Amino acid sequence: MHSHLHTPYNANCEEIMTALDECHARGFIQKALGACNDIKRDVNKCLAAERYQRAKRNRDQARENRKKIERIWADEKVLEEGGPAAAVAASAAGGAAAGEK
């Protein structure tokens, strides 16, 4: 058995799911004889497509988040190693020391 189908995540499949509900409401004989099977296959296809799109959006968002984190890590590594600001300060101090001699 699956979870509740009528959710905001499956809004694009609402029409097909309603048709399946109506088919099932016609009675047990309809379900037992397979009269609703084609509609059920359509529901499954629609839900699979929705799930695929949702997973793709999540993957893309995760990749973007990972890029941001890696940029932050790279910036922190530069700062830990002395970074450009430290290099500029060191060269300025070195130049001043050379001028004093």
UniProtKB/TrEMBL annotation:
It is found in: Mitochondrion inner membrane. GO terms for cellular component: mitochondrial inner membrane. Required for mitochondrial cytochrome c oxidase (COX) assembly and respiration. Belongs to the CMC family. Its main location: mitochondrion. Pfam families: Cmc1. It comes from Aspergillus sclerotiicarbonarius (strain CBS 121057 / IBT 28362). Keywords: Chaperone, Disulfide bond, Membrane, Mitochondrion, Mitochondrion inner membrane. It comes from the Eukaryota. This is COX assembly mitochondrial protein.
